[in-house]
Write a structure and sequence with these properties.
Radius of gyration: 26 Å
Number of helices: 21
Number of domains: 3
CATH topology of the largest domain: DNA primase, PRIM domain
Structural class: alpha+beta
Distance between the termini: 48 Å
Helix content: 40-55%
CATH architecture of the largest domain: Alpha-Beta Complex
Shape: globular
Largest sheet: 6 strands, mixed
CATH class of the largest domain: Alpha Beta
Length: 484
């Protein structure tokens, strides 16, 4: 199907490409593989093309939204939302009300023609699917909600696909009356944009106190703690010499992004292979403190680190409550004793491009939108590249750039490669959960005036009459909208 017919189908269902991108980013966590069901009377099949498992494309998603077939996707090892699948029963409304008391501000949808319900609860950051399953199971069990097939099931599950919403027989529902709130798919997606709320993982932990003893609880940050002297010695030792089984560990000399990259590497390869859990925790505390994070922010981020990865340390498996108490004590000690001992955070600043950089950008392309994208890309690279001019281009960062919103991620990158601005030097596998690594073929200059925006640089280089000739009326207004 060509692009015109694809766009026309979107328009006929009151959809735009932005709506489709939002729907995919919100509910599709992994595009490979996926299951398909041609109608309600047939069974689920894994999509196969030429003998190989197929990856989910936008066309298949649109066909699902049009009701031509049904699509179900797998989550991968991490998830950004919780979905509780409630099958139709006499006490369905009572169960739903109990769940919404535990997880308020959730999105309630009818899953299919069978009138089952899916309750979506979205998170600010990703969490391990296995950890989420255990945690939610304990919370629901402590509240008397039975978790079993045919009644209430917890999704995502590693080996089971979950049907996407807004397909045939699926609607966003009113929490009280359980009646549909929209007439078509386009209205449904717009409604989801209005209703969606992202929650901190710590909010879920607040409900786990009534669960079993193995459920981590969050101790108050300023609660009185014991053994401060012992913990203080440990945390200060870890700042100067390695507290792990590996002497002279290279992390001791690393700071900032290089240190965070090695943290991520240890989480992929296994925590026991790179140092003890306490060693990594100490380094993380020092890392967040060096970025001028508050004690509350530091605690919350490391707590998410614990919950988002399957640690192999015995103390976390056996007594996570004690681990979190010790974490709070360690943070208190470092923040209280760092300055008296002469430790100070590194200054937090951002590098800016120069007027000469804007002049070079104008020479690369006459298109204002692409100029603005290149400006954003260079500013991002300037603040993230390492010593050999290599930097990652995560899809989320590129999409957030305030330019070329109607251009896909791959089209933007292909354009930058076509003009020789970047060169791909490494392609990471899907399991690595890493963006492609590129080399930046650009020399940043330091001998001219700093500019914070592309528009500021254009007004310093060109006169207004020249800008009026170079750009359309719309873009000229954007460049000069500050009244200059």
């Amino acid at each position: 199907m060509n692009r015109i017919s694809f766009d026309s189908q979107l328009k006929s269902h009151n959809l735009s490409r932005e709506d489709l991108s939002f729907f995919s980013a919100t509910f599709v966590q992994c595009r490979f593989p996926y299951n398909i069901k041609m109608d309600e009377n047939s069974g689920w099949l894994m999509r196969i093309f030429y003998g190989k498992r197929a990856a989910l494309d936008d066309y298949a998603i649109v066909r699902h939204l049009m009701g031509k077939h049904l699509v179900a996707t797998f989550p991968g090892p991490y998830t950004k939302y919780l979905c509780l699948d409630l099958d139709y029963s006499i006490d369905l409304k009572e169960t739903l009300d109990a769940i919404l008391r535990i997880f308020p501000k959730s999105l309630v949808t009818q899953s299919s023609m069978s009138e089952g319900i899916h309750v979506y609860h979205f998170f600010e950051s990703k969490i391990s699917v296995n950890k989420l399953q255990k945690l939610i199971n304990k919370i629901l069990d402590s509240r008397g909600i039975v978790v079993q097939p045919g009644y209430c099931e917890i999704f995502p599950q590693i080996n089971r696909a979950l049907r996407l919403p807004l397909g045939k027989g699926s609607y966003v529902l009113d929490e009280e009356t359980l009646s549909p709130l929209h007439q078509n798919v386009g209205e449904g997606i717009k409604l989801i944009k209005e209703k969606i709320t992202y929650h901190s993982i710590t909010e879920i932990l607040s409900h786990s106190k009534a669960g079993s003893k193995l459920t981590p609880s969050i101790p108050p940050l300023y609660e009185a703690v014991r053994n401060i002297a012992t913990l203080s010695n440990g945390i200060n030792d870890s700042m100067t010499t390695s507290n792990s089984r590996i002497p002279n560990h290279p992390w001791d000399k690393l700071r900032g992004r290089e240190f965070k990259d090695l943290i991520d590497q240890s989480l992929r390869s296994g925590i026991e292979e790179t140092g003890t859990r306490y060693f990594l925790q100490s380094k993380l505390i020092f890392y967040y403190w060096s970025l001028n994070y508050s004690k509350e922010q530091c605690y919350d981020l490391i707590l998410k680190w614990y919950l988002s990865h399957d640690h192999q340390s015995k103390d976390w498996k056996n007594n996570p409550d004690r681990v979190l108490r010790n974490l709070k004590s360690a943070i208190e000690c470092l923040y209280r004793n760092a300055q008296p001992k002469g430790h100070y955070p590194h200054p937090k600043y951002k590098k800016h491009l120069r007027v000469a950089d804007v002049r070079n950008i104008v020479q690369m392309t006459p298109d204002y939108r692409r100029q603005k994208f290149i400006f954003s890309l260079l500013a991002y690279a300037l603040n993230t590249k390492d010593l050999i001019a290599e930097f990652r281009l995560p899809k989320k960062a590129i999409i957030k750039f305030d330019a070329c919103s109607n251009t896909s991620y791959q089209e933007k990158i292909s354009f930058c490669e076509s003009i020789g601005l970047i060169t791909k030097i490494k392609e990471h596998s899907r399991e690595d959960h890493r963006a492609r690594t590129y080399r930046l073929n650009y020399e940043f200059l330091d001998d001219e005036e700093v500019v914070e925006t592309l528009e500021d640089g254009l007004k310093k280089i060109f006169k207004l009459r020249d800008l009026r000739k170079m750009y359309s009326r719309h873009y000229f207004h954007l460049i000069t909208k500050d009244g200059t």
